[in-house]
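Table 4 source record.
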Amino acid sequence: MARHEDQLAELMRAGLSGDARAYEALLKQLAAVLRGIVRARARGMDHGWCEDVVQDTLLALHVKRGTWDSTQPFRPWVYAITRHKVVDAFRRQGRAVHLPVEDFADALAAEDGPDPFEVADAERLIDRLPDRDAALLRCLALEGQGHEVCGARLGLTGGALRVALHRALQRLAHMRQERL
């Protein structure tokens, strides 16, 4: 399964780089995978309905292809779009849709280790801070350096570093409150 995941991801990367043959191969392979997923979720819907959902999903994947982060796993991105397309199709039919998350647990399971989006989210927030606050938080939180190293780098004594850190964290908390 991991090998198939790697192959699909490589085809997508090549397709995004302009390789039309790789992109065509990707879509063909994805169509087969999507048919299986849609049929498993269709619960009594006819073949034509399932094929419409597969085609809608392929179109959505094509339109949204630029949103896939090539450093992230490919399959969860595909499955998320597929799930939304299945739900949309059921809604158009006027049926209530209940897809238990357990059905997708194996497909959506996060890899062990730090959340890949956590650092990106933190960097985005830190970039909105004044330069000194941003440099301090990058040093302490993102780089994992100690107080002594960060203090020396920024020319701050231990007490000044604690005050600066407290103020930087207050600014972050204030930015979060503004977004809520």
